[in-house]
Specification:
The complex is a heterodimer of chains A (249) and B (314). By secondary structure, chain A is α/β, with parallel strands linked by helices. Chain A is built from seven helices and 13 strands. Chain A has helices at 38-52, 70-79, 95-109, 128-136, 189-195, 205-208, 236-245; strands at 3-7, 10-12, 34-36, 58-65, 83-88, 113-117, 140-150, 153-160, 163-170, 173-177, 200-204, 217-222, 231-233. The longest helix of chain A has 15 residues, at 38-52. Chain B has a seven-stranded parallel beta sheet, sandwiched between helices. Chain B has a five-stranded parallel beta sheet with strand order 13-12-14-15-16. Classes of the chains: A alpha/beta (249), B alpha/beta (314). β9 (163-170) of chain A pairs antiparallel with β11 (179-186) of chain B, so a sheet runs across the interface.
Chain lengths: 249, 314
């Protein structure tokens, strides 16, 4: 393989408990910690391991978002990516438009493989990889937990509801990373310094000139219904009695 | 008037319960006609089962050896060829539907609505975002098909009693050869299925080993319950991945959920917030799981669980 393209989305950090704004206009992200979407970090780790095994030559990280996403791309470069591309957009980009933008980059870069996270933990859409594969007319292997390459093909083990499914796909293809594909490495300080010198190309989203379709309108945000704290019991007989009361045992 | 196409999920022998839940969601769309389509190698029996579901108006099945195993790249063009005048195309928010439906949406050049939890109107839906910390209302544009996945935990399966007509159909679509099924390693299935079980017992990191996890399986057996696990327990290798409950695992809604040795990270709570009754057993009285539990018991799970199993069996 020559090139692997990896998507890195800037999202609210995994540990932040997001709250809906009191006026229902969105979620409060002011001043909260932002990070690389955890599944994208796994995607990048996998790409780096493939390159380190000598099975690929170059790993390119891509983010679509505001100029602040440069931070996440720099982290990606510090992890070991060779170069970065930021598709700069001041407004939120939906999955279909993201997929169309990735496709434009694919046409330019001709990667052998695209690895994305299986979902972004902000909107939980789980769409972009599959949409990209569809528009590209290439295979998709979603929810991947193991990849084995054999020339121009890959065997991918997928985490599905009833267990593990293995499929074989021809390259180029889109793979989306699940949790257990690998454990991403920690970034070391010297690598952060080195990453500052690596190339980071900025493209404006408008320059990619993708055709957007009627977007979904996000009309209201509300907090979820909270469950109430229930009763505490002190031993097993009390627990069994409480369950019997509810007709559950 | 809306015309909804539901993509059935099945294992070749029987329909997955997710299909009847998609039908339940579709039936919430005002003035809707609901069609179910089955892609299989031999779909006649599956089609008869779907025809028996309440609220279904018509069932179609497409027999093709290429459809023996559900591959998104193979199914999507067939669905697109059927899309025609359907106003809505629904699939379940299971790994089957999550894999397939965005591929369909992209080929139709529409955005997808993921995880529909409530139908407000024919083009207005609620869905969870940020691991369920916010509920978003989205409006889909008129004039193009609404492609959506249905959050199965939000719906009760429709019952039987339907008698919809069944039609075998053929579709003309170029099916790609670039994606091939190799194998499926399915978990043991002698227990109730985690996603549809009315009772679920889950274990967390506090179980400390896969040997210790046996007490969870034994309690589940006594209760006739399915078994789940927290992400920590799966990451630690105590149980296989398909048992994971939460934002990135399975979202479930059993009548009874017993969380044992699970602290209750928000990502886990996302997976169980629609459960009927939540029981938490944990040695840490401050564990966040107790904030959402209907019944809490603080103590040593290795003493409590065998005692509970014994009490239930007697």
């Amino acid at each position: 393989m020559e090139k692997i393209l990896v998507g890195l989305k800037r999202v609210v950090d995994y540990n932040v408990r997001v709250r809906v704004k009191s006026d229902g206009s969105g979620v409060d992200t002011d001043g909260v910690k932002m990070s690389i979407n955890p599944f994208d970090e796994i995607a990048l780790e996998e790409a780096l391991r493939i390159r380190e095994r000598g099975e690929a030559k170059e790993v390119i990280v891509v983010s679509i978002g505001t100029s602040e996403a440069q931070q996440q791309l720099r982290t990606g470069l510090a992890m070991g990516a060779d170069r970065a591309i930021l598709v700069e957009s001041t407004t939120a980009v939906d999955p279909l438009t993201s997929a169309k933008m990735f496709l434009k980059l694919i046409e330019k870069e001709n990667p052998d493989l695209v690895i994305l996270g299986k979902q972004a933990i902000d909107n939980d859409n789980i769409q972009t990889g599959q949409m990209l594969a569809a528009l590209w007319g290439r295979p998709q292997a979603t929810f991947a937990s193991e990849l084995v390459f054999d020339g121009n093909r890959a065997k991918v083990t997928r985490e599905v509801d009833i267990g593990l499914e293995t499929i074989e796909i021809d390259l180029p293809a889109v793979i989306t990373a699940d949790l257990r594909l690998n454990e991403p490495r920690y970034v070391k300080l010297p690598d952060i310094m080195k990453a500052k010198k690596k190339p980071l190309e900025q493209i404006s989203a408008a320059d990619l000139a993708v055709a957007t379709v009627n977007a979904l309108v996000e009309s209201a945000y509300e907090p979820p219904q909270q469950r109430q704290k229930g009763i505490m019991v002190s031993d097993v007989p009390e627990l069994v009695a409480a369950l019997k009361d509810k007709g559950l045992v | 008037m809306s015309k909804v196409l539901v993509i059935a999920e099945h294992d070749g022998n029987k329909l997955n319960a997710s299909t009847a839940k998609c039908v339940a969601c579709a039936s919430g769309i005002p003035d809707s006609e609901i069609h179910v389509v089955i892609f299989a190698s031999a779909g006649e029996k599956l089609a008869a089962d779907a025809a028996g579901l309440a609220s279904v108006d018509k069932v179609m099945y497409v027999d093709n050896s290429s459809n023996e195993h559900a591959l998104a790249a193979v199914l999507a063009p067939q669905i697109v060829s059927l899309a025609g005048d359907y106003t809505h195309i629904f699939g379940p928010s299971t790994t089957f539907g999550k894999d397939l439906m965005p591929r369909v949406a992209a080929l139709l050049d529409v955005n997808q609505i993921s995880d529909v939890m409530e139908v407000i109107g024919s083009h207005s839906f609620k869905r969870p975002i940020y691991a369920g910390n916010a509920i978003l209302t989205v409006e889909a544009p008129e004039g193009t098909a609404v492609v959506a996945t249905v959050r199965t935990a939000s719906y009760r399966a429709v019952g039987n009693g339907g008698a919809a007509p069944v039609e075998q159909i053929t579709v003309s679509a170029d099916l790609p050869q670039h994606t091939r099924f190799v194998s499926l390693q399915a978990g043991k299935s002698d227990r109730p299925d985690l996603q549809t079980a009315s009772k679920v017992v889950s274990g967390g990191r506090a179980l400390a080993s896969s040997e210790n996890f046996e007490i969870i399986f034994r309690l589940a057996e006594a209760l006739g319950a399915g078994v789940g696990a927290s992400r920590a327990a799966v990451d630690a290798g105590y149980v296989p991945n398909e048992l994971q409950v939460g934002q990135t695992g399975k979202i479930i809604a059993p009548d009874l959920y017993i969380a044992i040795g699970i602290s209750g990270a928000i990502q886990h709570l996302t997976g169980i917030k629609d459960a009927g009754t939540i029981v938490a057993i944990n040695k840490d009285a401050d564990a966040p799981i107790f904030d959402v539990a209907d019944i809490g018991l603080v103590g040593d799970l290795f003493k409590i669980i065998p005692e509970l199993e014994k009490a239930i069996r007697s």
